[in-house]
Amino acid sequence: MSDLKKALATPGRSSVAYTDPVLGADRPLTLEIYRAPGYVPGNAVVMVQHGMGRNGGEYRDFWIEPADRHNLLIVATTFSDAAFPGPENYNNGMVRDADGKVRGRDAWGYAVIARVFHAVRDAGATTRTKAHLFGHSAGGQFVHRLLGIEDSASFETAIAGNPGWYSLPTLDRPFPEGLGGIGVTDADIDRLLSFPLTILAGDQDIETSGPSLPAQPEAVAQGPHRFARAHNYLAFGQREAVKRGVICNWRLLVVPGIGHDGDAMSKVAGSVWFEARLPEPARLQALAEKQDSAL
Predict the structure, then answer these.
(1) How far, in Å, are 135, 227, 241 from residue 262 at the CA level?
(2) What is the pLDDT of residues 122-138, one digit of tens each?
(3) Half-sphere exposure (Cβ direction) of 113: Cα atoms closer than 13 Å
């Protein structure tokens, strides 16, 4: 039994070294896994993307409480800073090589997540054909860009929590401000707009400066802080959908009392998906009182 198959079959936490079949051994990954004691292969699988701290193990642990409540399998694919240095190789998906040339799509970081999910299926850990996809902070950037660039057939729904800024759904602006210049098509934009994306925005994520808040002019043009930028992204997508004559299937959920907190937003996402609501006010207050600010 392979290490991955064994880890997926065992309740509790595990960490497994993973070599992507396209990126190869020069770009090692780690899969941080949690299998709830009550999980069975027909239950939901949540693919989790960490923030700029490259702390997949922490993000996996943030999901343990909702996993135990709803009998989930959590798989957090961790892109280390050593193997994937800087935002270009994580948030921005390794779209371009060191010479600035656009790589083949299979070699983009965004393509890895569907391959990991297929490895989970091949190991017999799930009978589902689609996973839930969650990312927070830099992981939220990663998730919404993935949906605009990759075939989203492996994901039934997605949540992007508190991204620092957004790639707008237009070919008129170059990536990463928009999706232009990297081979994305109008059909890709239409597919992105129709995908059931939830943008989670903490109403206290309103810092206007700091080392983790993108501050390039293109980001600042989207709003002074993450909370404003989330609203700008939804409004832009809705306008673009009208122009294209398609439905924008996105929604923005404001999370009261929560700032840039990976732990809280993970638990809110679990409630949104598996209880079809935000947590009760008392629960939100408790989460707000223990703000974690994991990036």
Answers:
(1) 9, 15, 30
(2) 999 999 999 999 999 99
(3) 37
